[in-house]
Amino acid sequence: MLRQLTTRLPRVSSQVRTFTSVRSIDEPSANYRPGKEGFAPGMPHPPGASPSPSPPPAPRTVESLPEMSKSHDHKANGTPTQKFELEMTKLRHAYQREHYEGQDKLRAERERQRKGSLRRLQARQQKDREENVQRLDFERLMQPDGLTGAQRQEKVAQFVQERKAQRAANFQKSCEVAAEKRLESMVRLYHAAEDFITFENLDAKVNEFYEAGLMPGKVYVPTVQDMVAELAENGGQVSHADLVQREQELRDALDGTVSGGKIGMEAVKAKSS
Fold it and tell me: I want to staple 256 with a disulfide (CB 3.0 to 4.6 A). Which of 52, 69, 103, 266 is the partner?
């Protein structure tokens, strides 16, 4: 009896059976991202999990939304309950379409922000690389890399001279810009001298102020943000005085004049030359 049982048992093969669907322990999973998801090399595959997870489903869009089935058309001439169900079906379909449109806009905005962040990151990385190259160039210049002491000192002296010349050029340029600003301020001050308030015309200026019903003026900063904010504060209305002032500033910028068509800095420089 024992001999019959042993003869019926299958023989054990000496070869180990391998399953191709199981991930090797020496290889990472297909979706492995360090610290994010997947399984690292050397980590056994857990039972019951797929070694190659399926990709996430495509997002639903307005184009993928099917049209409402025509099987509901017969409810238009049916009972009040069927008409109500038809209206609710149309309303749910409209809500679903609005939801998908909102999701499309949200995905587009996220993609725009992602591209902007990537662009800023690449610009910052490029700037860091350029700074590192300059720093490494100077370090290589200071380190002995096959050059003699005299050659290295000569290169260092040349680098110092170039840096000194660049700093002098930058300082000269800043001085020229400051001189132009001072000259422009002096020209504006010269043209505004006739409106200065002195002890002799103080009473006349006060009477003129109250008779004209003017309000104390404020400094006008012609920037887009200030113009938009001022326009919002006024309820979207632009006063006639603001229009006249902006038109005069535009003419001054185009003609090279200041203070309402009076001679400007460019004309003063042309006459002096």
Answer: 266
